[in-house]
């Protein structure tokens, strides 16, 4: 996980790169790679915000949260500008497909994470059950062994063996 300062600078540099490239290209489709870098940086910043809210970073939580929230607010404003680039170049359908695909990818990732957690829980339950069975077998074996020992001792005292 990156630190808050790195997250902020990643967003800032990605925004600057997109703005610089958008002035030199004729088609918004050419912005794809640099927009991808911007959204990756934004995702990292969101993770940093979540970690800072959980108290996982040292220092002034209020200061870091303030900086990150302000950066994310600027990011939202920037995204509106990007959206307008698509609309102005008459690529509204492309923007709609992009946002629909992003939602689908997020839903797919959430389902995959849910499956991963369920599988991890299932494996842990299997391990717990196996440990319980092995423990029960050991206790039963110990009890049978002790019973056999005491029966043998009793028979030896009675002179049977």
Description:
The chain is mainly alpha-helical. The chain has helices at 4-24, 32-53, 61-88, 92-157. The chain starts with a helix and ends with a helix.
Would you spell out the secondary-structure blueprint of this structure?
Layout: H1 4-24, H2 32-53, H3 61-88, H4 92-157
Give start-end ranges of low-pLDDT stretches.
none
Give the tally of β-strands: 0
Structural class comes to: mainly alpha
Distance between the termini: 72 Å
Helix count from the secondary structure assignment: 4
| Relative strand content | under 5%
The outline comes out as: elongated
Mean pLDDT: 80
Rg, nearest Å = 31 Å
Oligomeric assembly: single chain
The helix/strand order is HHHH
How much helix is in the residues? over 70%
Major sheet summary line: none
Keywords:
85% helix, elongated, 4 helices, 161 residues, mainly alpha
Summarize the structure in short.
Helices cover 85% and strands 0% of the residues.
């Amino acid at each position: 996980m990156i630190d808050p300062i790195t997250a902020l600078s990643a967003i800032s540099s990605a925004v600057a790169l997109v703005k610089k490239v958008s002035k030199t290209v004729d088609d918004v489709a050419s912005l794809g790679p640099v927009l991808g870098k911007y959204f990756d940086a934004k995702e990292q910043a969101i993770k940093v915000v979540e970690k800072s809210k959980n108290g996982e970073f040292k220092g002034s939580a209020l200061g870091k949260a303030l900086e990150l929230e302000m950066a994310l607010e600027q990011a939202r404003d920037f995204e509106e500008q990007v959206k307008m680039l698509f609309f102005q170049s008459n690529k509204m359908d492309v923007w709609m497909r992009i946002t629909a695909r992003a939602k689908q990818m997020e839903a797919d990732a959430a389902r995959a994470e849910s499956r991963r957690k369920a599988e991890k829980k299932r494996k842990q339950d299997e391990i717990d059950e196996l440990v319980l069975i092995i423990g029960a077998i050991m206790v039963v074996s110990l009890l049978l062994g002790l019973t056999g020992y005491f029966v043998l001792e009793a028979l030896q005292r009675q002179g049977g063996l």
